[in-house]
From TrEMBL, chain A:
Transmembrane listed as a keyword: yes
Superkingdom of the source species: Bacteria
Alphabetic keyword roster: Membrane, Transmembrane, Transmembrane helix
Pfam families linked: AzlD
Provenance organism: Pseudonocardia ailaonensis
Entry annotated with the keyword Transmembrane: yes
Organism classification: Bacteria, Bacillati, Actinomycetota, Actinomycetes, Pseudonocardiales
Chain ranges passing through the membrane: 40-64, 76-99
Record protein name field: Branched-chain amino acid transporter
């Protein structure tokens, strides 16, 4: 890693972040397009959940992690407080790994 | 202005933001330790956590360099992974805040978790206050974690042993669930998950999630209930209508 690389990654990432926010400010989006940007965020976040829960380095992440996410998701459906959802998910995965589940 | 911001938050918001920040701190520790193990000077590691503040791309950049890749490849891989922040900004630009300073600072703390955390709190003053709160806490947690990780080095345990890798998708899922009550969001969400999972073995990190945007073709007609919820959106942000 070099300073040039870190600064380039930082500047590029910041520009990406800022440009979306500024674009939203500059143009008044028609209702139809505003709905699509909102649904787009949903699509990205669900895709992140799915890939983070199930995959690791392009392959299957093993059973312990998706099991934990499943328990956390079920807890969230049952309106369990957010903090407990996070703890239950991590605890389930940690317990399964301690038992030798990959 | 300050008092408006303080009262806009719901009672549980601080507790929930702290839970996310705690998990981020643990991952920050592992980032600091990993970067130290890869022989990256602590000044560069800290600069990454302070200036880039995007965990996935920081891990990826370190991995690329540790595997003998060129720094320029690390930058390209990291930027590709962070491209999703642009559509996030488009979606929550109204939540981030109105002033130039709000936007400048808000842009720096735009990550998956802050986006999902704020969206789960609507589009009004509460969402803006929640975004600032969680953004600040995540930033502080990530950087404290990085410092501890650099100092702790190999003594820092693998966060996966504590199931932290399951905590993040579970937290995002919990934040998303209310919005998935709308039929159109559910269609798009399921389509996006299928597309991203199918693409993951074949595309570099970051692209599968972007390709999942193709699921927007499933958006169809607006769900009536969703339309009502969105009714406040057009009337401007910061209208102070907490849930």
């Amino acid at each position: 890693m070099t300073w040039a690389a870190v600064l380039a990654l930082a500047a590029g990432t910041y520009l990406v972040r800022l440009s979306g926010i500024v674009l939203r400010k500059r143009v008044t989006l028609p209702e139809r397009v505003a709905r699509l940007t909102d649904l787009g965020a949903t699509a990205l976040l669900v895709a992140l959940v799915a890939t983070a829960a199930l995959t690791e380095a392009g392959g299957f992440a093993g059973w312990a992690r998706p099991a934990g996410v499943l328990v956390g998701g079920a807890a969230a459906l049952l309106k369990v407080p957010f903090v407990l959802v996070v703890v239950l998910a991590a605890g389930t995965t940690a317990a399964l790994r301690a038992l030798g589940v990959p | 202005m300050c008092s408006v911001r303080r009262t806009a938050l719901a009672p549980g918001d601080l507790r929930d933001a702290l839970a996310l920040a705690a998990a981020v701190t643990v991952v920050g520790m592992s980032f600091g330790a990993l970067a130290a193990a890869a022989g990256i000077p602590w000044t560069l590691t800290m600069a990454m956590s302070l200036l880039v503040f995007a965990g996935g791309s920081q891990f990826l950049a370190v991995a690329v360099v540790a595997a003998g890749g060129a720094p320029v490849a690390a930058v390209a891989a990291g930027l590709l992974l962070n491209l999703r922040h642009l559509p996030f900004g488009l979606a929550i630009g109204g939540i981030v805040g109105r002033g130039a300073l709000s936007r400048a600072l808000g842009a720096h703390v735009l990550i998956d978790e802050s986006t999902a955390f704020a969206r789960a709190r609507g589009t009004g003053a509460r969402a803006t206050a929640a975004y600032r709160l969680v953004g600040a806490l995540l930033f502080v947690g990530w950087n404290i974690g990085t410092v501890v990780g650099i100092l702790g080095g190999s003594a820092v345990p693998d966060p996966n042993a504590f199931g932290v890798d399951a905590a993040f998708p579970a937290a995002l899922l919990a934040l998303l669930l209310p919005s998935l009550k709308a039929a159109d969001a559910r269609r798009v969400g399921i389509g996006a998950a299928v597309i991203a999972l199918a693409a993951t073995p074949f595309l570099p990190p970051g692209l599968p999630v972007l390709v999942a945007l193709l699921a927007l073709v499933l958006a169809g007609k607006p769900d009536p209930a969703e339309e009502r919820r969105r009714g406040t959106d057009g009337s401007g942000h910061g209208d102070g209508a907490p849930a």
